[in-house]
Design a protein that fits this description.
The chain is mainly alpha-helical. Among the domains are: about 80 residues, DnaA, N-terminal domain (GMP Synthetase, Chain A, domain 3, 2-Layer Sandwich); about 35 residues, no CATH class. Strands 1-2-3 form a 3-stranded mixed beta sheet, covered by helices on one side. Helix 2 crosses helix 4 and helix 5 runs antiparallel to helix 6. The N and C termini lie far apart (about 85 Å).
Length: about 160
């Protein structure tokens, strides 16, 4: 026997289901606060978003990491406007204040920058002798080999005087 159910035109988003299930709990507040990261670029625009990103929110204070001192100063003047735009998009006054800090604003959707390895060069005979002298008194062969390899890698990554 099939039940008669009213069907909605679209599936309910998980965020709405979570908000309903967590209503009245501290987790519901955290879920609403998490929206800040989703709406940040829209609220502040691409120019600011490329230089400043939200880092945390606690007790209504949004911490924003800003790329440079000039931008930090400029955003300090715009704090009230930013707070107003964010709260308008959130639909409620979640943000009471904005704390700006200097740092590297990591975008949550940006891939980590690949680490560039320096090209290793061949060690000179003098450098090899230096490593041998530095490791000669180490009795444990495992420690001696590990230290020698580390020392060699360090020396090989430094440019020589003629490079």
């Amino acid at each position: 026997m099939a039940r008669d159910r009213k069907r909605k035109g679209r599936p309910t988003p998980v965020g709405e289901l979570l908000a309903t299930a967590l209503q009245g709990t501290p987790a519901a507040q955290r879920l609403r606060e998490a929206e800040i990261w989703r709406i940040w670029d829209e609220a502040v625009g691409p120019q600011i978003a490329s230089r400043a990103q939200p880092a945390a929110i606690r007790s209504g204070v949004l911490t924003v990491t800003v790329a440079s001192a000039p931008w930090l100063q400029q955003l300090n003047f715009l704090k009230a406007d930013l707070r107003g735009k964010l709260n308008a998009l959130l639909g409620e006054p979640l943000i009471q204040d904005i704390f700006l800090k200097s740092g590297n604003p990591a975008r949550p959707d940006a891939p980590a920058a690949p680490r560039r390895r320096r090209r290793q060069r061949r060690l000179t005979p003098e450098e090899t002798a230096q490593i041998d002298r530095a490791t000669a008194e180490l009795n444990d062969p495992v420690v001696r080999d590990a230290f020698a390899a580390l020392f060699a890698r360090h020396l090989a990554s430094e440019p020589t005087g003629d490079e």
